[in-house]
## 1
Amino acid sequence: MKKVVIFSKKKSFWGVEPDIDLLNKQIEDAENDGWNVISVTANTSLFGVIASYTILIESAK
């Protein structure tokens, strides 16, 4: 089974870009839970600032 996950949590309310440290931790947690990360793609705003990430994961089972 494959899933698409959108990650857009920011370090603070006024933050512009998503929290990369939290993204890496969530990817690590997903891999420990038996998911394989297929791809991570940055989604940008109209002005070219990274607004979120789209993650494609696949069940390792």
## 2
Amino acid sequence: MVVVIGLARADFEQLLQSVPAEAPAFAVLRRCPELHRWGREEPLFKCVIIECDGDEALVLLEAAKQHCPRAVADIEYGLKLSRAFDLIS
């Protein structure tokens, strides 16, 4: 199952700075495209898209609960959409 998560750039950066480098969630965050390559026009410069599998999304969710509670709803939404898509495909 592929999970696509959209995070506010500020939430992504908070997670990236707060999650320990040895944590599995950090590896998921580091796979995101380089932010300096993103467009400078709205909405691209305000969001980060993370593609991961279901297990990685759950690891990211647990990290967000500890380090960036604002991101929890966005991660849960990505998980919910991917599960719904799996049901219809």
## 3
Amino acid sequence: MKENLKKYLKILKIEFEEAIEYLEYLLEAHRIRYEKEEITHYVYLENVTVLTNELSGIKNILKIIRSLKVDNFRDLESLILYLEKRVVESIKHFDYPEALHVMCRRKLEKVKIFVLEN
């Protein structure tokens, strides 16, 4: 059972690291579009603000994931429930967008299904 928990956390970390890379790519793409004058300064700032806020939230969630120790959980479901609770608290505390919670819930479920099926 502990192997499933380790596998779950390992894959979940990869999922969130990939999300960080994607948001960083989007930030760079918006900067390039702004420099080419394809978008206005206002649109650029709005997009950068949203993306930066989401990036901060994902990095915070990744810190939570990295801090978890599988020995503190009896099974996968208890780990997921604890993690989702911490994510919700973090989103509320830092006023991150609600879309971050939706994305996180999807990733938690996606990785759970993968781990249980393999």
## 4
Amino acid sequence: MIDLDSLIERTDAIREKYEHYWRDEQAQAELKAIWGDAINANGVFVNAPEEILYDRDGYKAWITIGTANGLHAFGCGFQTPIEGYGNAPSIWDELFETRSEARTAAIRFLLERLPEAKHPHEHAQREQVERMRKAVANELRQPSLF
């Protein structure tokens, strides 16, 4: 297993060496040598399982954790009937040494991006978004011994 600092250094060196690292064939070959088949040509983790945190009445929130070389990255997203957001786990984003750390970071990142109903006439949307927000936030709660 490659340690986190070494992997980041090697990946960053490729980014600095090649102006268009995301499309340069030699850069892609060097990245593949480091990461193997765990990433696609854009540095996005393939086969990262999606964990649904909330899915009700057209409101959905999820996270994905990509893993390679013992390191983890996250993606996340949400959708409502009128808007959405999503990103995929990538080697170009922050990497974590444990899946648990990546999962916690993904949930916090997602909570910052969940929408808020801003107008008084959006009562139903506000209730749905608040339910989704609470369900996602509950994923961060520590289990109690009592």
